[in-house]
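Escalated from tier 1: adenosine-5'-diphosphate holo job.
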Amino acid sequence: MNMLEVKQLTKDFGGLRAIDSLDLTIGKQEILGLIGPNGAGKSTAFNCIAGVYAPTMGDVYFEGSRINGQKPWVLCKKGIARTFQIVKPFATKTVLYNVMVGSFANTNKRSEAKEKAMQILEFLQFADKKDIRAGNLTIGDRKRLEIARALATEPKLLLLDEVMAGLRPSEVDELVDMVRRLRQSGITIFVIEHIMRAIMALSDRIVVIHFGRKIAEGSPEKVASDENVIKAYLGGEYVVS
Ligand SMILES: Nc1ncnc2c1ncn2[C@@H]1O[C@H](COP(=O)(O)OP(=O)(O)O)[C@@H](O)[C@H]1O
Ligand SMILES: [Mg+2]
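Tier 2 regenerated the structure:
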């Protein structure tokens, strides 16, 4: 059984069709990459899967059950977590507090929430910053905090929306490594990323969308040499380095 199945997913905003009949599947413990030019509908696809928006048409199945239109907190309990492209931590609260907010998805006990949060901070090699206020973190550390908050909800499927944007190359390498370790720990990962080097290195398969439609799908090597993909990116929007 696939972890996630998206069938003929369509999302309209007024007259604008942001996602158009999108089909895709993700197997358990797979890393699927989603790429496409700005405005292609990538974040909208995530929002439809994570319950932020109800699809206009089409279906989303998680572990074999239809989840269309269920609320984000319901889906979070079922095991879907996402990061947001624009990170919004509680700026005046500490890193630990922010991660604990995620752990409370699965427990009401403060001690358990704290223990879980600490485990995640250690896994992310972030525990030394646990007492820093989120508003004082560097961009790289804010991204890490965003991932930690999502992980604290103990997801089976993690949706990462451009978590590497704005990071230094060494920070990108660290995150690539970290996402690989997450997969090894049993999590299935769906990742949107603009940095081609990172998404090529990470993904088992890549789906490419343009104007809300799938224009290519396959191994990183296959999509990188696909004529439609190259055409969609003319204008050099992608960071190739
Ligand atoms: N809440 C919204 N209301 C109206 N239009 C939206 C909304 N969210 C996204 N859009 C539009 O949908 C299209 C796809 O956006 P988005 O999914 O954010 O693209 P991407 O993440 O690929 O850059 C864009 O044209 C965007 O302006
Ligand atoms: Mg986006």
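DSSP finds nine helices and ten strands in the chain.
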